[in-house]
Amino acid sequence: MLEKEINKRRTFGIISHPDAGKTTLTEKLLLFGGAIQKAGTVKRNKAEKTATSDFMEIEKQRGISVATSVMGFEYKDIKINILDTPGHKDFAEDTYRTLTAVDSVILVVDCVKGVEEQTRKLMQVCRMRHTPVIIFINKMDREGKDPFDLLEELEKELNISTRPLSWPIGIGHTFKGVYQLHKKSLNLYSPNKKEIADDVIAINDLNQPELDQMLGEHAAHKLREEAELIEEVAEPFDLGLYRSGYLAPVFFGSAINNFGVQELLDTFIEIAPTPQGREANLRQIEPQEAKFTGFVFKIHANLDPNHRDRIAFCRITSGTFLRNTFYYHTRLDKKLKFASPTSFMADNKSLVEEAYPGDVIGLYDAGNFKIGDTLTEGEKLQFLGIPSFSPEIFRELENTDPMKTKQLEKGINQLSDEGVAQLFTVNPGNRKIIGTVGELQFEVIQFRLKQEYGASCIFRPLNFSKSSWVSATTPAAMQQFLKAQASRIGYDKENRPVFFSSSQWDLEYTAKQFPEISFHDTSEWD
Ligand code: GDP
């Protein structure tokens, strides 16, 4: 029974540099799944403006995005869970954490722009975790780069092998469709924004003369040549290599025109991994285990001060989750039960009675959870693989209302539990350093501290650009390092020491001086 539920599920994320077409593709996938009836239903979960004064607008959009944080739907008897990731780079940490809860990703690339900054960063995270990736090259109706050049760029810049499974015929105004290399079928392109097109023609032999009539002699000739070339030079598609994150199958299409999306989805359900196990501190947890385990990877706060409740998003790793059943919160060593766990189906929320590995449920929370927390049926274990990443901007928090010191303390602790920013403490003096990936978070923190906790603060700039978690070959070496570098050492919320550096050069220079110390970009390392 459990096995059946597991095999039925695929949980994945769609990632892209902003504007490549993530929202559009998500919407088309939901259309195919029958989860929504018409285009325009999925709210854009993104912040277009970067002016800091717009952050309330962004938070509002994030509010909207609660409903679209997880979008579940059924397609050909498969339960598909799409985990949404914010595109705005200031929320990149949110995205990194969401990637810990997926089993695979679809990466959307704009054929005009190719690999962009966020594409690179997100793929780094996927590579780190060996997440299987399918690439969808979008906007083929635009005058984009040559497809061979695009593949080369992807391989070089993203450090992954690629294997086209479909091949475009023309591009931009000469775009005629795609040829499915494996299925040997041709999809002819007709711009169609709303409905689902099904102009699929089986082509058993690319040499058949009808092809010339359908595509024109020139395009048909080019397709024959290119298809032959791909078969010669491209690596064969190897499921194992895809599943272990080394080989990315590539599709071409145009999301807005609903083109190439169905082939993507059909192949996705065929090859994408079912819910996978996760590593915990004591052992590896497999989804088939009868006992429930899960972890919290995202917390969404309610901005309305009258409703302080938060939603903790929990990914189920093993067993069956049941409503109104006591589960063990391993960090707090306490039992909790949930009366109204929520599941998400496209734009609907509903009460969930039971949930299975791969599912994501929303748990209403009054402050028990922080990111990375583990729930079990009693075993005291902690899931790994939800590391913190080094922030990029560091500022010192200064209290400007001494009467509200306690509130400030509580507020900043809770906000960092939610993952809004990272909090480091520097001794002596209990100074607080806030690390973020974007300017926006400082505005958000200041505003929320005031609104929700009545506390006031300002931020002082610091000349740090990176925090590295440190380990040493011996405790004595660690002591010596911490003492020698005291002014640049802080402690994270788990009380692990971090070293602040001002540049890569600075870090490397220090590393040379202290050969017994290892510096880590994330809070978990091998
Ligand atoms: P996101 O930021 O990655 O979520 O991107 P969106 O889905 O919001 O798309 C960004 C813009 O590209 C929007 O104006 C879309 O209408 C447009 N777009 C998406 N897909 C296509 C496509 O296949 N062709 C063209 N020409 N435009 C597209």
From TrEMBL:
The keyword GTP-binding applies. Its main location: cytoplasm. PROSITE patterns: G_TR_1, G_TR_2. Gene3D superfamilies: P-loop containing nucleotide triphosphate hydrolases, Peptide chain release factor 3, domain III. One of its GO terms (cellular component) is cytosol. It holds the Pfam family GTP_EFTU. CDD domains: RF3, RF3_III. GTP binds at residues 16-23, 84-88, 138-141. Belongs to the TRAFAC class translation factor GTPase superfamily. Classic translation factor GTPase family. PrfC subfamily. This is Peptide chain release factor 3. The gene is prfC.
